[in-house]
Amino acid sequence: MAHALFRAYRHLEHALCAQRIMRVHSPFVYGLVTEVLRDKRTFYAFGETAGLRQRLEQDPRVLDFPDFGATDAALDQSAVRPPQVQRSISRLARRAACPPKLGRMLFRLVEREAPEHILELGTSLGIGTRYLAGPGRHRRLITLEGAASVAAVAAEHLQALPGVEQRVGPFAQTLEPALRDLGRLDLAYLDGHHTEVATLHMVRSCLPWCHDNSLLILDDIRWSPGMWRAWHALCAMDDVRLSIDLGRCGMLSFRAEQRQKEHYRIAW
């Protein structure tokens, strides 16, 4: 209940304080707003993914899996063992899967930026993965999921996507090998944990593999006070030259051309 009130307050604050397009001076951010956030075009992949979502929302199968999001066990093998939970696929599709608005934004962002090496932390049912892979711009996309039973459902439709590789297991075991295998990180979508410690760890692990044009996208930055603190700590890092608060999610950029750090709150 406390986290729900926190999220409601922070989202209201964002809606009231976000910058409008006429106040955006960065060419990159202006292009992001006009070509990604305000792009109303419909792509064929949107309909395919919407159909998949509808099927998953009607799937009554019940999964048993460890709730890694409840602890930092996926990053620290010495941590308390995560609790086992049971969830129906229909419930996961309705409440945990990448929502359509965010997914369409990810698709358009990939279409615009053309990242070749993509990492997703938190496959869930694979809906977000399909949006990331939809434009076909990637050379290699690795998606990580901690829960084997959830990953198995995603594999039912992800196996047919070219250049997409699923890896299953705690991030403590899968994150570093995935980064090494990618060799460089053009775009990362982080939606695998919702704790302060985990979020900071995941981003810091990604930094050595980032370059000037890399983009890191963090979902649910207003999920809890811990996630909100993590977002501000990341925005303040020296390597981050540009941070963009979109309300639900945030973006981090490392562009060397950005001589002064800038932070934007964008109404979306």
Structure description:
By secondary structure, the protein is of the alpha/beta class. It has one domain: Vaccinia Virus protein VP39 (Rossmann fold). The chain has helices at 2-17, 27-37, 44-57, 89-95, 100-113, 127-133, 148-158, 171-182, 196-206, 225-235; strands spanning 62-66, 84-88, 117-121, 140-145, 164-168, 187-190, 215-218, 242-245, 250-253, 262-265. Strand 4, helix 7 (148-158) and strand 5 form a beta-alpha-beta unit. The two termini are 26 Å apart.
Labels describing this entry:
268 residues, alpha/beta, Rossmann fold, 8-stranded mixed β-sheet, two-stranded antiparallel ribbon, 10 helices, 43% helix
Percent helix range: 40-55%
Distance between the termini: 26 Å
Radius of gyration over all CA atoms, rounded: 18 Å
- Average predicted local confidence, pLDDT: 90
Largest sheet, strands/sense/barrel: 8 strands, mixed
Oligomer: single chain
Q: Mind sketching the topology for me?
A:
Layout: H1 2-17, H2 27-37, H3 44-57, E1 62-66, E2 84-88, H4 89-95, H5 100-113, E3 117-121, H6 127-133, E4 140-145, H7 148-158, E5 164-168, H8 171-182, E6 187-190, H9 196-206, E7 215-218, H10 225-235, E8 242-245, E9 250-253, E10 262-265
Parallel strand pairs: 3-4, 3-6, 4-5, 6-7, 8-10
Antiparallel strand pairs: 1-2, 7-9, 8-9
Helix pairs in contact: 2-5, 3-4, 5-6, 9-10
